[in-house]
Every structure is written in structure tokens, then in C-alpha cells.
From TrEMBL, chain A:
GO terms for cellular component: plasma membrane. Residues 75-264 form the ABC transmembrane type-1 domain. Signal peptide: none annotated. This is ABC transporter permease subunit. It comes from Pseudooceanicola pacificus.
Amino acid sequence: MSAIFRGSGRIGLAGWIGGALAFAVIAVAAFGPWLAPYDPMALDLRARLSAPYLDHLLGTGEFGRDILSRLIFGARVSIFVALSTVAVALVIGVGFGVLTGFVRAWTDRIIGIFNDALLAFPGLLLALGVMAVAGASAGAMVLALGLAFASAVLRVTRSAVLSQRAREFVEASRVMGNSEALTMWRHVLPNALAPLIVLATSMFGWVILAESALSFLGLGVPPPAPSWGNMLAAARPYIQDAPWLIVLPGLCIQATLLGVNLLGDALRDLLDPRMRT
Amino acid sequence: MIRFVGLRLLMAVPTLVLVTLAVFVMMRLVPSDPASVMLGEQVTGEMVARVRQSMGLDQPLPRQYLLWIGDLLQGDLGRSISNNQPVLPTILDRFRISAPIVIVAVTLAALIAVPLGLLTAWRQGSACDVSTVATSTLLPSLPSFWLGLMILLVFGLKLGWFPVLGMVGAIGGGWAVLSAIAMPVLTLLLIEIGAILQMTRPSAVEVLRQDYITHARAKGLSEAVVLRRHAFPDAFAPTWTLIDLILGALLGGIAVVETVFTIPGLGRLPVQAIFERDYPVVQGCILLIALT
């Protein structure tokens, strides 16, 4: 592991703040059901659009649902979608990246063409297309965004593999009679880990942003399930009477993104000093 | 040189074929049939069959694909199911609405962010630099639609400076149009400034460390001349590609901003079309944006 952690060896204040923010959001998502004061779906039509007060700390929505509980469960949706999307992108991207980087020749060409076609699709549009086919759901979104982000993972993996495969220790492993797969797994992949960790962190942020944008457009997590994006969309007609409905989900998205971005920058500085700015 | 360009163009052909194929297959995978969507609920099977025939949906799939490509090459993207307008002119109309917003926002963002990047790189560590870097870290983590809603809330509703209903009231031209696009432009502008700054400042830092800058200074040129004549063109060069990328991304990503400000632009077209199950329009939009 020491090869991964060469670099400046320090995370810095911004990195700690980012890490703490990201960790807090993940903790809220993990322990959501125990933290939320109300059922996020429970209706209370007598308390529609009430301003924040003691019973409902952050007020209620257009059907009297408790906003604090919905925000907490919204964090679960965002984190779940982000984690699964990053996992999908990593599996597809690393798999094909290793294949093209190591096997080369025709496989490389063909996958390259597919990847170019994938890159030509803006992520949001690919997601729109998949939603049109599969209907709006969290699963479809994970698949769509995972595919969209896989091409970036593929590029990073491929270039890391290409730069490693000519090294002496890779050659040595082959000479020792190890199979290609073992060589790949033991000697090449661990050295490609640093850029992948950095990429995965920033992907996490992009996915949270993309998920909330799609849900805002009505193409992501379908209501009444709470998601920060669809809460914003639902609150739009009440922007004048109940501005807290707009402000709060946005703050949640922003705090999460800020945390993840700061953490990502710190990890990049830590793991890959060449990319430092 | 010609051979090189030709080869590159030839390499793009399989990509283009794949993109069109992907769009085609995607639309055929959609569970509901465009013919029955078009006719609504109460129709006989016979009517559906007739419409399917007129739309060419009864042909075998490979033939449908070739027919579609043939029309495509003649610039015919088909007709919208919901209002029977040809798709390509619809897209162009929408483009005319979105383009000014995107172009004004990106131009202004570049005019602000590029000199600012150079300036902060020149006086690295100063208060101006630190606050700029902090802002450029904060801005990209703002979701554009939330920023838009906040701007709408503050400038549109609380202060009442700009019309809330977006383009609906902007028929007069001149000042009316300007004030109608002010809030969406401001939203995009802030997002883009963050993105461009993240690019220009590091590249300017890099350039200012180069030997030829030291040489220019040693020649006795004033700092202003060194910055303007020697540092600026090089620091700006990588930004061009970024601005190019942003323009592309904006045309795809402007959907949320247009939704916030209820602007009937290009970004909202595919979103609306998906809700209305208007597949020719979705197909055309995805294809056009994928190809640019």
C-alpha cells in the first residue's frame, strides 16, 4: 500500500473539513430511520406549508409532510444512488480499461470506438434516454449515470495500465510464469489505484449533482419518495409563500458537494502530487 | 496532412454509426408504441395498424434504420407526434431562444474569469487570490437549478427587479428581452466563472514560472506589458478548449436553468418530449446534441 500513499503525506485543513462534512452526510444517511422525527411519507393536511416551529423543526411541505424527516431520507437516496453509480462505473470502466490496456490490438480499437460514442453523449442526455426507455426510477438512474461515468474510468484505467505494463516488475512477474490475469491483478492494478480513488471521489460529487438535477426535472427518483431534487421541484410553486422549502434541500446538496469536492481535492494532492495545482 | 485529416474523419464514421444506432435502438426499446401513443386510448387495432404502416413501423427493423438514416442525411428528422410539426425547424426555433443566453453567459464568464485567473496567479497568496480561490471552490458545488431558484427568489420576487415569468412577457424586444434573460444569464455566469477559474488560474501559475517570462522581465518590460503581451496569450490557450466544452455541455445542461425560469428553450425540449412520449423529438434532440 505504500506505493499508493506516496505524495505530500498531509491532508490539510480543507481536506479535514471536507472529510467531516462528507462523513456527516453519510452518517445521517446510514442512521436515517433512527434520526428522523416523523415518517417522511406521513401526510398531515392540517399542517400544510407550516413555517419551522417546535413540532416540525424545519417546517412542513405542501402536503404537511415533515421536511426534516424528508431531508434525512433524501440523504439516503442521494448516498445510495451515488454509491451504486460509482460502483457500476468502476466495475464497467476498470473491467474494460484493463482489457483494452492489456490486450491491445483489435479489442482496444473496438472498445475505443464504443467509448468515443459513449463520450459523444452528454451524461445528462444519456440518462434522459435511459429514463425514456425504462421509466423514471432510482435503478434506471444508477444504470444510466453508471454507464455515462464509466467512460471516464475506462480512460483513466487504460492509461494507468499502459504506463505500468512496460515496467520491469510486470515483466518479471510474467517471466516467473504467472498468468496474465494474476500479473494484472497483483502487480498492475494496485499501481493504478491512486488515480482511480481520486476519480471515484469526484465522481461521487458529480453523481449527487446529476441525481438531484434529474430528480428536479422529474426524471429521477419519482415522488412521493423524498429526494433533494424532487423536493426542490415540488416546492417551486410555493417559492413565495414558503421559501424555506427551496432553501433547505439546496443547502443539503451544497454541503454534501462541498464536502466531497474538498475531500477529493485533498486526496488528489495526497495521492498524486503531479496533479497538484 | 490531407491524408491525416482524411484518416481522422474516417475514424469518426464508426462512432457516428454507433451513435445513430444507439439512438435508434434506444427508441425502439421504449415499451409503448408511438402509433398507439399518437392515437390515444380508444382506438381499434385496425387504426393502429394503419398508422403504423404510414409511419413505416411495420417494416423490418434494419430497413427502418436505413430509411431513418436516409431521411436523416436529407436533413429530415421526422415530425413531432404531439403537434405534427417537423422536428428540425422546431429544434432550430428552440435553439434561437437558448443560444443568446448561453453565448452571453459564457462570453461574460470568460471576460471575467480569464483576467481574474491571471491576476490571482500573478499575486499568488494575496487576499484577492485567496478569496477568489475560495469562491471558485464554492461555486461549482452549487447546483445550478438551486442557484437559479435563489436568484429568482431574491431578484425576481423579493426585489422585483426582473420579470418572474421569463420569456413569456418578453415580446417587446430590446430592454424587455434583456431583463427577461438577465436572471438565467446570471445563473449560468456564476457557474461558468467557477469552472473557468479552476482552469485558468493553475495554467497562469504555470506560465508565469516559465523562463521566457523571467526573460521578458529582465529585459526591463513593465509588469503590465509582461502580463498582457507574454503571459496572457499562453495562459488563455488551454481555456479555449474548455470554453468549447462548456458551450457543448451548456446546450445539454441548460435544461435545468430553463426549467427554473420557464424558458421554452432547446434544453427543455427533450425533457418535455419525454413526458409527452414524443419520440421523434427526443430522437432528434439526442442525436443533434450527441453529434455536436
